[in-house]
Amino acid sequence: MKIKNKEALEKLQKKLSKEFSKFETLVAICGGTGCRGSKAQKIVAAFKKEIKSRKLGKKVVVKETGCHGFCEKGPLVVIRPENIFYQEVNEEHVTDIIEKTILNKEILEDLLFEIIHEGQKKAKKKKAKKKNDEKRNLVIKEDDVPFYKNQVRTVFGQNGYIDPKCIEDYISYKGYTALAKVLTEMEPEEVISEVEKSRLRGRGGGGFPAGRKWRSCRNAAGEKKYVVCNADEGDPGAYMDRSILEGNPHSVIEGMLIAAFAIGSKDGYVYVRAEYPLAVENLAFAIDEARNWGLLGENILGTGFTFDIKISIGGGAFVCGESTALMLSIEGKVGEPRTKHIHTVESGLYDLPTNLNNVETWANVPLIINRGSDWYSKIGTETSKGTKLFSLVGNVVNTGLVEVPMGVSLRKIIFDIGGGVPNGKKYKAVQTGGPSGGCIPESMLDLPVGFDELENAGSMMGSGGMIVMDEDTCMVDISRYFLSFLVEESCGKCTTCREGCFQLYNIVQRITEGKGKKGDIEQLEELSVTIKEASLCALGKSAPNPVLSTIKHFREEYEQHINERKCPAGVCKALFEYEVDSEVCTMCGICFKKCPSDAITWKKKEIAVIDKIACTKCGICFEVCKDDSILKV
Amino acid sequence: MTEANTLTKKKKVDTKPLAGILKKYPAIGESLLAILQDVQLEYKYLPEVCLKKVSNKLELPLNQVYAVATFYNAFSLKPKGIYVIQVCLGTACHVRGAPDIVDELERLLNIKCGDTTPDGRFTLESVNCVGACALGPVKVINGDYHGHLTRNKIEKILKQYK
User: Fold this and answer.
1) Residue among A34, A469, A470 whose CB faces B134 most closely
2) Is A410 strand, coil or helix?
3) Which range of residues forms the domain containing residue A517?
4) If contacts are CB pairs under 8 Å, which of residues 537-596 in chain A contact chain B?
5) Residues 6 or more apart in contact with residue B34 via CB below 8 angstroms
6) Contact at 8 Å (CB) between A592 and A604?
7) Rounded to an integer, what is the distance from CA A474 to the centroid of its chain?
8) Tell me, what's the ipTM?
9) B113 interfaces chain A, CB cutoff of 8 Å
């Protein structure tokens, strides 16, 4: 069935929301990649089966939604409209949830989120549960969980409500209203002005004003124009874009449609990573559905406007996140960036004017059109408007996706929302901006997040990955890690990036092996300047950032590696040895049993001894020892 | 070098599935990546004879096809094992100890990361990020996620695939 015009869309929206309101209960089960990895699909199947067998189909609707964000506690199940939040659910809980919560409005305490205060953290979890039953600080509602409470969810708002494989769901939540408004009430120029006034900046990393890009593309001469969505989210530790595509693909399609109308384009592409199979699946499904409903293709909503989208799947090359490389990759070529003295808005895909934005940027567009640029520009800081999604990962208690207004401090994100660093460890740094970004130390945690603020701190916002590191992280090793990544991913076109990163890597590798020399740090700095100056694309220009920012904020750690041959965090294997603490060892012998290289001698009622020559430093003894008697010295 | 050697080695490859793949896509340059992805999925690598046929069909020079085949990480000129173990080496997994997981897998399988066991059972490779950071360190074996890994758990997981 095709939706013929704006009136038909509005009628359909009313009809659908009336139909959906008949259900008394919505069971929203997170079906993002993280929760699926913890067998969320089995829970969905169990719910559907049991709802059917109990003949509750008219009262209760079960939806496998996109990612809810709180990946740490998955699989997540939320019972709406009460918004009862259940975490770490498995198949066996399904019957109880239906019988007790859905039918009898009873709360299952064991599945609730518990706020544990500093003092309680050290007490072992199980013991605390039994002893302090009355003191437990349980949270029932989703919005009261600290992780969600401090967020502002606009782009990500519908993710926990709609089924990405059901266009009716999106439509019932006023989906495609912005498109209808643009096509029937606005001129292309007005649309661009509105986006300009909102001061939306591209979320892919560069932060270029979206409206200005659209205008340049509209004004560029060309027989054909392209609208491209960059979904090649290559930054390790960042998965915001994936979750939008998985959970709410129609918001991206709608954003692209609006831009296509404003720019005058008929052809769109989404370039998406092959490592995101679920995102590809849900997006392809959504595009098909939109086509069937007449929201993609010819004569959209009876206005004569034509636009369609193709999916192009990437081949796993980090550099293809760069716009010119991405466009070459769509053409079926090797993704090597080119100079940008002619911008892609003038000459991009197939040398025609091309407007490229990333997933999150597109998902912001319908919101701006629906709620107006005034509303949008009130959120955020002077130079960075709106909200931003971050993926908060690494050594943090609450791993997950976080949406906050621009201008919120890093401290609030990491400690209030993220719950700080786990296992009583100390915070050391947060790495933002992926391999092009930098590490931000404790002293700068009150920095508000925004494009310019983070850049001034020697990092960058990038697409929004935030990797928290605790005191057990070695900053020299992190620098080595990013360099090995960049050596692997440099396309090889510019000598400075190809050879320069390799030399940086060699030096840092040597330092981690305990073979550092005086003058190494200075040489790293000098090489970095050359790489930044003489490389063509953003990958090369920003490649030295992880090295420079770790030297800037953690210089003493480099010095300890070089001068004292010590790795204070106990990560660089050449710089420490395993030893048994004879005062703590309980003589259990587990290290002896597990050692794969026969480097441990032990007899009953004797303290274990590690043979430092035979030891390969694999770390298994350290991992299996229950009383922390294996030391790194 | 080893990749190039495999390319020149003559082996009988059944090209019937390739014909089916070529029919699916229009014969234009834009289809190259998609076709190679399907070939990789079907044959577990890109056989030389397939690259030549793709080059003919799309009217692209073989060197351009070869360039694409060697540029992208998704393609391999060597056959991969029945089970492909992808260890996530994203930053989040790295700080949670992913390098130890690779070490342990290398030790247990007795191969280096990127190689395939002589019996063709396992291929061990690292990937940049699978976006399942809450499960980190994580590895994916033929699409199944195994999270919160420690060295100690690995042998047990491998046994499921023996």
Assistant:
1) A34
2) helix
3) 475-564
4) 594, 596
5) A312, A313, B25
6) no
7) 23
8) 0.88
9) no
Which residue's entry shows tokens 């597990």? Answer: A594
For chain B, 162 residues long, give each residue's pLDDT as a single digit of tens: 444 445 445 558 888 999 999 999 999 999 999 999 999 999 999 999 999 999 999 999 999 999 999 999 889 998 999 999 999 999 889 988 999 999 999 999 999 999 999 999 999 999 888 888 888 899 999 888 899 999 889 989 999 987
Give dist(CA A145, CA A85) in Å, integer: 8
Asked if A476 contacts A574 with a C-beta cutoff of 8 angstroms, the reply is no
Helix orientation angle between A240-247 and A359-371, rounded to the nearest 10 degrees = 60
Q: Are A397 and A418 in contact (CB under 8 A)?
A: yes
A373 close contact with B: CB closer than 8 A: no
Contact B34 A312 (CB under 8 A): yes
d(CA B162, CA B155): 11
- Which residues, in sequence order, are CB contacts of B90 under 8 Å at separation 6+? A236, A237, B98, B128, B129, B130, B131, B133, B136
H, E, C per residue of A63-93: EEECCCCCHHHCCCEEEECCCEEECCCCHHH
- Global pTM reads 0.92
The dihedrals phi and psi of A572, each to the nearest 5 degrees, come to -75, 110
Domain containing A440 — which CATH number?
3.10.20.600
* Residue given tokens 């981690």 in the structure block: A512
Quick check: is A310 in a domain?
yes
CA distance A464 to A204: 8
B52: domain range?
2-71
By DSSP bridging, strand B139-141 and strand A113-114 are: unpaired
Residues of chain B contacting residue A489, judged by C-beta atoms under 8 Å apart: 128
> Quick check: is A318 in a domain?
yes
CA-nearest residue to A483 within chain B is: B91
- A624/B91 Cβ within 8 A: no
A436, A470, A504: which is the final residue of a domain? Answer: A470
Q: Report the CATH number at residue B138.
A: 3.40.30.10
Structure tokens at B70: 């060697």
B91 vs A465: CB contact, 8 Å cut-off? yes
Grouping H, G, I as helix, E, B as strand and the rest as coil, residue A145 is coil
CA distance A429 to A424: 15
Task: Answer whether A321 touches B (CB < 8 Å).
Answer: no
Query: If we measure between CA atoms, which residue out of A412, A366, A51 comes closest to residue A177?
Result: A366
Distance CA A363, CA A154 (A): 10
Strand partners, A86: A77
Query: What's the token pair of residue A465?
Result: 């990955």
Q: B133 and A276: CB-CB below 8 Å?
A: no
- Amino acid letter, A168: E
